[in-house]
Structures
1.
Amino acid sequence: MSAATVKGIVKDASGDPMIEATVRLLAAKDSSFVKGATTNVSGGFTFGNVNRGKYIMAVSYIGYETAYRDFSIESGTKTLDPVVMKESSVMLKEATVTAVKTEITVKEDTIEYNADSYKTQPNAVMEDLLKKLPGVEVDSEGGITAGGKKVTKILVDGKEFFSDDPKVASQNLPVNMIDKLQVVDRKSDLARLTGVDDGEEETVINLTVKPGMKNGYFGVVNAGYGTDDHYKADFNVNRFWNSNQITFLGNFNNINQKGFTDSNGNRFNRFGGGRGITTTQAFGMNFNVGKSDDSFRVGGDLMYSHTDESSRTSRERQYLFTDSTSFYNSQSGSRDKGHNVQGNFRMKWEIDSFSTLEFRPSFRFNYNKSTSADSSMTYAGDANRSQVTKSFNIGDSDGNSYEVSGDIWFNHKFRSRPGRSFSVSVNYSLSDTREKEDSYSYNKFFLLNDSIDEYDQYTDNHTWNNQLGARLTWTEPIGDVLNGNFFTVSYRANYRWNNADKMVYDRELEELVMNDTLSNRFRNDFFNQRIQVGFKKVNKMYNLDLGIGVMPAMSKSRDLIIEERNIPERWVWNLAPYLRYRYKMGKTRSVNLDYRGNTSQPSIKQLQPVADVSNPLRIVVGNPNLDPSFTHNLRVRFQDFNADAQRSIMAMASARVTRNSIVSKTTFNSETGGQITTYENVNGNWSADVFSMISFPFRNKAWSFNANVYASYNQTIGFNNGTRNRSGALNLRPNFSISFRPDNFDFTIRPTYSWQTTHNTVSKNSNKNVQTYGGMFDASWYAPFGLVLNSTLRFSGTEGYAAGYDEKQWMWNASIAYQFLKGKAATFTIAGYDLLQQRKNISRSVTANYIDDTRYNSLTRYFMATFSYRFNTFGKGNQPSDRNERRGPGGPGGFGGRRR
């Protein structure tokens, strides 16, 4: 008898996906239960291995009427029409209800934010929305964290958008297209395809597009010019149809808005460190097209980018030793230019109801040119601040690289044995990087009779890698598949060939003479394997996934120039247990428990026994006796959503303990100011943190309250000038916000406070109790005739640093905008940034070894006039709602309308 797959999606009356709705498959002849499932974050559900015949599908959800669908199936894949749920009317009789969309909903591994609950400026981008969301943080470089975890991908309606670069979406996609923003903790793509845990997890953000914007063209074009010749221009054009997507975007500016992740810093010897003033040009496209039943889809992205970064930095550092101190001052300037072209593609083919094939090729080309100059002085800690070392360095480098890779995944479910599955995946990558560098270094040692070391060198670097990997998995049901018991086994192997040539030449009488001591030609091999067995239990109340992995690893290294640098072949074996447990207390309440053990091998550089003296003041010597480190990770998470009170609660705690941590051990030479660094294994490193969040509206639905608390403790074992030191840092960070959002006004106040205490067993001078406090006030007024006024005021201050280094600053940004033309499609804005000109460009870092203060060039006060034009082809009556549209007393429909 042939079997088939049944797919469908569940929505509410407004078109929003219904998450965790219960879907039951019943036999038409007697309504007996056949299969059951719950909908995912996109409202979708799938039943596999369904026999030919007639069925009834029943969909239920608290507060909604149960929906029924009759259908029959022969073979292949059956995609049902969307099921639209209707709210239950039992409690609505003799009452007038004003409906308000829930601001935050917490369900299992998902935190869902209703985008319309957070008003933003006209033509704002996703990043502006993220900065308003409780529990979500965006750092100065555009990196996104949610609940303390880094966001690695952004999806649009469940489909990848520019692969593994969240900044492209967050800094380019317009806010007005977003209906819901969902923060999801999930397994890797491969683990979700095969159902077998591979030890990798990720936190992603899924954007659901407003129902009215899923068929047609829409986009926005912005152009602005300001004081000090600052400018910006960007465009975003989207075409959505029948679950297909294509996006074109461009970005040009000199106000540090890259709009993407610059990958050159990971490949070349860049000097700026990501700070300073950056000019950017970028073009990109993203697409995802295929059949409406998702049986075959092709997607991918292409991007070209160019950056020009100019950075100036000054640093004052005080080294803290057990018996003395020293001071280091430096000035540096750099310029980094880069060109990048990259492409990532995806093909997914559901061959039939039982077999799926995926292919993911990618490529990348990079070019980089960097120049730098720096000078520094090291002083002794005596009363006269005696001079120790004076240094001057200049450098110039040109580099290019390319990388190609491909992954093939195949998964098969057995028709004859429901629950049994097999998968195989193969991946290959090739990379090649070449960089040529000219450098000059001058060092004067005042305590060694004013002796001088001077280097004028040319370096030719060439690194190329090949990597081949494969993974096999097998899942076998234990007994009747309906009991939900499964045995899993997997094997993964990965072999990497790493080749690195560093040829250093001294300039002598206009000739280049090879320097054997500083040159090397390494041939490194790495072979990692993982053999894993596990048990899975799936039922209505809980899911359990546990097992253990055995991880043998081999490494070896050979230097073609100096044999003493060779590292013979070495094998290391580790055990890596894992546990994932989820207990469902109800439709919207659950608790998760996760444990994972993993190992980390020392790098070749950390094992290399011969000194690297390419920088004579920063010598590095490896330790061939290092053992791999092993980390225990434990996490507990509770989530609850009360639909009646519209209250969301989430609490999470995690802990990490590492055995045989690999740490650096640095000793200082008081006569030269130089350092010698090696590596050692230590025990005693551990950390723990707690994060909790609550959100609910007041009785007056225009008011809402959000609060979250984060606390962490980190214990780190290190060395202070060769002496073992234990450092403990406790951090408390409570935050809350109150918002008032009537029809034409938006007001939010968010106080911030954090307290950190740091204690060291050796260097008492670096013990600190530091408080950081401040807050954010944001207010906007939306006039009925298109005028929008906005003011954002932020204050931050610190207490607990040394005299002269505590900071207090006010950051005030304000704008006035006028929206005009049909549908308010055009906007003219005048904005001022850092109106009080108090932006600080100073950062401080305190460790057990030193206190470091850094000052760098940055953008300060400027004004900019911007014109924006928003367009779409949705037609009259199909326009998506505007979150900033002024509503009448009863809502968009006037009196008696429904306020969303």
Note: The chain is about 0% helix and 65% strand.
2.
Amino acid sequence: MQGEDGTETDGPGRFERRWSLTFGGEVITRVAWSPDGEVLAVPTQSGVVRLVGLDGQVTKETKVSPKALWTSAWSADGRRLAVAGRDNTVHVLDVRSGTEALTLSGHTDDVHAVGWGTDDAWLFSASYDGTLRTWNARTGQMQRTIAAHEGRIEDAYWSGDDGLVHTGGRDGRVRSWNPDSGAMAAEITAHQGFVIRVLGSPTAASLFTAASDGTVRVWDRRDLRLLHTIQGFSGVPHDLSLSDDGKLLAVQDDATNLWVYRADTFELLELLTDVADHHHWYGSSRFHPSLPYLASTGEADRAIGLRSYDSALVEELTTESASSRYANCRVAVLGNTGVGKTALSRALCGKEFQATESTHGTQVSLMDRHIGLDQQGTVVREVFLWDFAGQSVYRLMQQSEATDIAIALLVLDNRNAVDPLSEIREWETLLRLGTPPGAAGPKRVVVVARTDRGSVGLQSLADDWEREVESHVGTLETSAREGVNIGELRELILGAIDWSEVPTLTSNSQFQQLRAFILQQTSTGRIMEQTRTLFREFCRACTRNGVPEPALTEFRALLSNLDAEGLVHRLRFGDLVLLKPTLVGSYASMLVIAAQRVPEGDGTLSEDEVLAGRVPLLDKDRVADRRHEEDIVHAAVQELLNSGAVVRDAAHGLLRFPSAVRRTHDELAWERLAGRTGFRARALADHVHASLIAGLEYSGLFDECALWSHVARFRRASGSASWVRVRPNAGGMVQVDVRHDAAATTTERGLFEELCRSQLSRVAVGGAVDSVQTVVCPSCTTGIGPEQVRRRRERGFDWITCGVCDTRIDFTQKPVSPERTPEVRAIETSASRTRTQMLRSADVALKEKRRLYDVFVSYSHADQDAAARLSQRLREHGIRPWLDLWETSPGTPWIVAIQDQLETMPCAAVLIGPSGVGPWQRDEVWYVLQEFLGRRCPVIPVLLAGAAQPEVPVLLRNMQWVDFNRELPDPMHLLLWGITGVHPDERSA
């Protein structure tokens, strides 16, 4: 629409487009304003950077690299411009001359972030190679290399206030680094997906992050404490910008939209829509450093435009945005089975007492909901009780749930008069594992329940018991049956919640409607549904309520937000949505229990038997609908594989549960093994055991793994073997002992021990692991005490004489280094890749056994070989295509073969090669359009290499194409994105 002065406007006078530029179809990446605001630097995928004035005129154009430029940053004096990209290099340009003043080489992968430090004296760069590097801005010499993330780094931001560089990576973490020392100052798991942008406020101690999980989050920069979450975007938020006064926040997503919020209340002020989708996370938006202007990319990031806005915009009240704020407080009810947690939870929620059996899985219930007031205005405050299953077997799956807890009720067993605290030590470990480094963690309330049954009371606890429970705020004796102290406990919980510490969440009206819709469906007992069915029903509900219907892509984005909130769980097959997400963990734990009950005691289950539902599961809490149960079991197997709790033996069709093995190992045989290396850490024994087995198996160093109860033997191709044993220790600690047979070389032993320590540190509280070296006589196996060894070493001796058989005992073995050696890092990196390949292969195998498909593939007979190659590549990414070559017997029409699969086929891909659309394929294309578009399922047109866009039906012509004739954006990534609705990097994160 046109403004009075002829400029194009986006809305009723709030934003006006002043100009828009394109550069021959070049994709624009991260733009940057010069400090004085006179010039906008515009880098592109062609390797060219252009300088554009406020009037929209290009003032300078420089070819920097033959490869794509991803990012740009100005020096504070505006004289130099740093750009970086796909050539793994940072180029520092002299702006006046346009020449390259410095070339900073050293990264081994794409550089995605660059910036300037104090007084322009140094620069920093962050790369897909996982490193953060600093450089001397005068000489170009590399000053420091920091291994900042295990995987790719997407962004980095330097804060002059605290002198730290904050990095965001594909591991979902945000880390803060001292650039001078290379030390990590703070760390947080910030998102479920990977972090795309990191941005600091110019006026407050706040840090903003955008991620592939569909959320923008706000953190206190000083301690990385979560303050607020914004969700409800139509796509993935991939760029952030703050106005110079810190009052406006612009969020650009990859689904045509630019969202403008107040940066203090996070109230949505304006939603701007561009004319085409952003193809990838390349584009950007930038507020002007002093004037009310906003520059942003559009038209699939092939245009850059400038908008002006009313500087008083931030003061407006925009009731039409209908955005609401929520604060969701999670209270965990923790305790072993049979201590009365479920009855206690019912009582706290105001329900009548009801005798209950032990529950399986996590039960979630609303305890309190009220309207509160904070500095930003009104906020809906909700308190949910999470009743964790008490059986120890569930601990394997509960670690992922034990996060973001505000209050933890530690419920003691009133029948344990000997050591009541032993009942909660494992829960205390679970809470510490779920607490980010440096954070205080949830407040603890110790509860002695079922006091109507007598026995243990608070007086039975040891005098120093509070030392074992961190952040203790209260202790109560209760009885749900008689209502004793239930009101007092409820008041204690509500009073202990510091709402200023509970993150708030902003959502738009559509998200609020969907949230209410899903909660209503769940309350009726509905368990699972296909996305398109939920979409149709939600659209009808929107019509009844007078709310605009979302597009299917917007609906999927809203579901993604609900998934991040934990209200639903999107399954990776069948386009299914689980409305009771805790069922996956329940069934995963039931499968572990089934493996424990195998008569042979080897902890294995047949994969076919599991998927076919022929494994005996606990009758309680099972889903009545058999088809739904098959889907949930399928999802549970995937969850177990992802967590490392199960190792898949594809050759024998078995699922191996290390923690479920019950056969015992010969203790005498163990004592005859060589080596006395051990490690101690605060951790969960079953989790440690499963993680060690999975990590060592995927290392590729061993030909065989034999399992006993908490003991494993790993045999090498050379015939030598090393052993590991995991056992609980006093005070919530876990002991890991390592042994070797006589054939193992010194090098093999040292590497095995380093790998065990490294893997243990990944699952230990705070990553802290202590070495335990036990000296034993090689002749009579008599142990030598650590005090004797210490005193001998103080006197310069590295040996001692056995007091039983007089054998000389050497103790020259050095403790295992706490640092990961380059060899260990390389092995673990390779193991991670192997594990990813295995998971993808398992995804396809599980779908094959259940006859599930992800995409229907249409192609011309002339392109048969190309279609088969592309379909094979899809399988390598965990996607199962329906290709008639593989699925249809000779002489069978494809339309007959596919009929039974149509209802569960979520999308179709139409492949077009150099010969164009074949005569038989034309009928197929029409059928695909009618069937799939009629069910509102995606149809993806794909141009194979060497093909030109042909004449096709209008509906197909107007869709977004995947073009394998172009290098960027990666066509395979786009195809995976179209099939799954999830960016492929998010799927692998």
Note: The chain has a mean pLDDT of 84.
3.
Amino acid sequence: MPTDADPAAHDDRRQLQRELLRRARAGTARRTAAGPAGAPAAATAPGAGGLPKAGGEPHAGGGPEAGRVPLSRAQRRMWLMERLGGAGDSYHVPFATRLRGPFDVAALATALTSLVARHSILRTRYAEHEGEPYQEVLPTPRTVPVHVVDTDPAQAPALLRRESARPFDLAAADAVRALVLRHGPEDHTLLLTFHHIAMDGASLETVAGELAVLYASATGAAAPPALTEAPQYADHARREHDGLPGFETELKHWSDLLADAAPPRLPRRAGDTPQTAVRPAAVHTVPLAPAVPDALRTLGAQRRATLFAVTLTAAFAALHRLTGDEDLVIGVAGTHRSGTAMRALVGLCVNTLPVRVDVSGAPTFAELLRRVNEALLEAQRHRHVPFDLVLERLGAGARGADGTALVRVTCDVLGEPTVLRLPGTSAEYVDVPTDGAKFTVSYGLALDDAEQPRALVQYDAHTLDDSVAEAAVRDYAALLHAVAADPERALAELPLPGPDLAAAGDGPAPEDGSHPAARALRAHPEVVDAEVVRPVRGPAVAYAVLRDGIGPSGHELLGLLRRSLAPEAVPAAVTLLDALPRTAAGPLDPARLPGSSAPSGPSAPADPRAAAVTEAFTTVLGLPPAPDDDFFALGGHSLKAVQLAERLRTDLALPLTGLDVLQARTPRALTALLGERAARRSAAKAASRPAPRSRDVRPGTVLVTGATGGVGAFVVRELAARGRPVLALARPESAHLIATEGVDVIEGDLGDPDGLRDAVAQADAVVHAACTFTRHDVDLAAMRAMVDAWRRGPFVFVSSVDAYGHPGTDRVAEESAPHEPVSPYGKAKLDCEAMVLHAAGTGGRGGASAVRSPIVWGAHDRLREQLRWGAIGTLYQAARQGRPIELPRPGTGGHAWYGAAWVHAAALARAVAECLDRPVHGVANACSGHVSWRDLAQELTELLGTEADIRETGTVPRDLDHRWHYDSSRLARPLRPRPGEDRRTVLAEMTAAMDPTG
């Protein structure tokens, strides 16, 4: 029978847990916050009104507090863009305001923390499980840091632009940042930067209104109105996910409507185009007469249409005249918000609505307005179907023959921007531009200045010529003026565009008998020869020879052809050769071209890379492809592209990203891209490499491998805090997650020995913290490559106590000999240690240290996954599920103790840094402590809130057969625990951020 003391004791434990977690999170936040320029200080103001209770509990207003929640479809698209890479800051949402008057930074920190407590989407992390992304709400932090920089107003634009462009780490609930530029005692600029995955335009209005109320409460200047309970985005995401099966009828509507639609044929950019994933945005504007907006409103009212519908009609007319197309699709913004309950919802609720209109038949503008209005209303009736579901249903039909997206053009009416109006200050909107263009062309009517309305065109500067964009906005402005005066005029009678744009498109091909792709390649200044051949089966393939063997890649040349030629003239791939095989008379000899002797078809790939590509396509997409089958036609999408790239990158040890897959699209083109990268790597390997470092690398630079992993991330942070220049090695798809002052990033991984050699050659010291855990041949090859290139400075290898095997004594001295059985993982560590220790002190190399660590615990997702599924995963899962836990009884097998050694990741990082300054010239252990299985099981059940039955038996389960204490005297000083590094705190910090259901 329970007593009154039982729940009280439980509550005390929970309160202690929360307090320890709060302190640990606050300490971690102080250590890891990467502020902007000028080493700003973070303003904190705990204890003011509106803050959540101590311990970081989520706001009581409801919303999911824990557990995996599926992403909404809009979030999924944002997450995939981050995973694919190359989005830059296109999906960052900067919100800046110039504040004049008394301004309390501490009160702002309090208000911002309260806002994060109210809206769980602002403290949500995004992760992946078995290939599917999910979101997970984390506890409210003790305070949201507000960084303050003293600066002159003239320097503000550059600082704001730099801060807004800093990458986000979505896996760490990094969705909002705050920066205050202090220009004077009562003159400040406040920048809040959100990620689009957690914020849209309507949300900004809610945020601005609530922040004003919470700020007033924090300052105590007035009694603000009470805020109602906030709806939570995770609830919306769940509802959408649960309702997906009910969209079948609506999906059929969209697929029928768009089945044969094609992207508009925009004029192509002249000349070569840089092959970058980020699409740089540029804008042209033309002022309108002040009376034009009201005239357009009147026109719409007379025909039961909104101002937006009239503006959209003008966009259709302008696009028709720009392209000559009569069947057009323009995307408009929709919303998933409906009803008053969702009005205050903060989160990403926007949806793209494709509006398809037929402009044929020489209609008047009034008639075109009727067609557009009907299509717009029909689209809005089906606005709740997520656009990416429509794209998935359309498959390859969602793109043009050249891979162009169906929705390339959008239209919007831009009203007065949202401004943060804090009590006691005057507010002025500050524009912070972002680099990326989300669409090729966006038409807009800007009404932010009532006295000076403007027509604008934002465009992708890599796709559209500046002169074309300038002519397009002038034409759009002329249309708006003309239809405001006389909407009954036929489109053909409305003002013509400015300059003739015909030269920007495709002209007639010269009748010289050569293929247009070959002519285009030969016209490139760095190509000396090119030919195009058509195999017996499949599309044409191009071959090119570069001047002096240096120049653009085949993939880059293929992109140029896609942008400058008609789709039917674009070959499937461009392969670079040293010379074209020709007959004695001069014509091309196709029989001597690479792969020409092999029969075409998926059953006989031209080389091992082709076989790997075919196998990867088959595994990921479920269908065996022909060499020229389109990725999208086979059912591919963005997530499949990421999975395909990861598989090929691992199997072939060649750099490849999801964006590469989306651009190459066919097995033949992807094979050619991989072949080209393999050839470049071989050429680099054959070339001699100078020993001196690159001029761009600072003296004293430390190379850190595995820089985004559980150990490497802490090492990078520690070295940066000590002022050491760091060169961080990271895989291409995660390199953007490293954004620490003093840290340069070099892309690469353990499967790229040549890249590792290049990286080591540039550094003055090496910390090797990366590991595959399961592919020991890759680990050994990587270490061999790094030691070969190591020519100066110290080398620290983060090894494992698994290298000791199963010692015969329960206490293990540092550098004790290994004792069988030694696991394959432990043997690989021993072999790697031997390589680096034997090479130390030779050929100009410095000293070497092998730091053997046990289980590593710390606030990092990789370390959480190891706790959940790693060496003690069985114990953790039993504690989480409340299942009986059977542990070996002390004395079983003649051993007085069973348990595990562990080290805090921050302490391990300090030990590694110590070895750079004072190498141990051998092996050193790095342990923070040892914990018995019983103590660990009890702590996990308490932290997880379960009631598992812990039993001791006379048997020793294989995964719990660990009884060794490791001496760590050599690195005792840096391993000494600091506040927040005790076992209970770090376990609380790890488990609090983990999914309680898995």
Note: The longest strand covers residues 92-100.
